Sequence to fold (384 residues):
Amino acid sequence: MTAFATPPISPLRISFDPATATIEPTGPILTRRMSDLEGLFADQTEWRRSASGDDPVVYTVTSSPVPELDRELPQSITTILPGDCGGEFHMTKGHQHPDPQGEIYLGLTGVGGLLLFDGERTEWIDMAPGVIGYIPPHWAHRSVNVGDEPYRFLAVYPGRAGHDYQWVLDHGMGARALRSPNGYELAPYESA
Amino acid sequence: MTAFATPPISPLRISFDPATATIEPTGPILTRRMSDLEGLFADQTEWRRSASGDDPVVYTVTSSPVPELDRELPQSITTILPGDCGGEFHMTKGHQHPDPQGEIYLGLTGVGGLLLFDGERTEWIDMAPGVIGYIPPHWAHRSVNVGDEPYRFLAVYPGRAGHDYQWVLDHGMGARALRSPNGYELAPYESA
Fold:
């Protein structure tokens, strides 16, 4: 039954506006506020103050209608708003793929970083419009806005990959991106 | 042995220039001339004349270094040069994925069409910069340049999908894109 729970998807013409992260036709839209990001920022006192205060939107994810199913190749646009929490730049929760599959991020607006961690090695890719960040299978990944404008990127990923957020809470990401006089600096990861 | 014949790929920062279809760092580059496209255009007399004459480049495919292996997600940029063969617009060979996997094409420059055929149904997606054409699993696909400029698109596809070109020679694509006074028209498929 499961394999036929969703009818096969038809060919689709999907248009998107990089400047607004709208996708037409659109799928689900997810909003992550500061209060959704417990245990991620190093400065927990500042996180608690922000989450229980104005609780700002940190990022949104707009998906295309292509479903997260085996053999499909869904897409989404993530917008990370500029800002920091105790000097640590706004970032996504980060996740590992339970089913190890490669993924690409394509920069659309602003400047950001793609932080990758395989449990031992940490990598950082500077992202900008026209840059593809390649995430190999087995590498956990998180995105960070290190600029003053919204950082947006298009993600393309196999529908069977899945999202394991707990892995990042358990293992960290190997580094943190902190505001510095020259923009950003990467600091060793310490538990929140 | 096979699974370890190629070492795991590391995270990569890949930049590309939509105007020239260059990818940095680059992988293999493939060139298809008219003589490489036997049996595809309806007007075989005109095809033979062109292929044995100046034999023009019809399209090129520049790949990123991400390999076509299970769990990887390679990318490529295809450039179809403007032109036609006996009134039938320049097009790619077209293929089916032996391992049915979804794929996306993202328009970069020019205008084109994405022709899809599942053996019964034919679909056509008008492509332009900023448009994603979604190719579901089980749909053969071919790209066509219906304009006067190079039509370029970025493809993202699971490395395990593979390319079956013979399927298109055996089954056709359900329709052909012909030059018309208003630009293009789709005609019923007839064997070459």
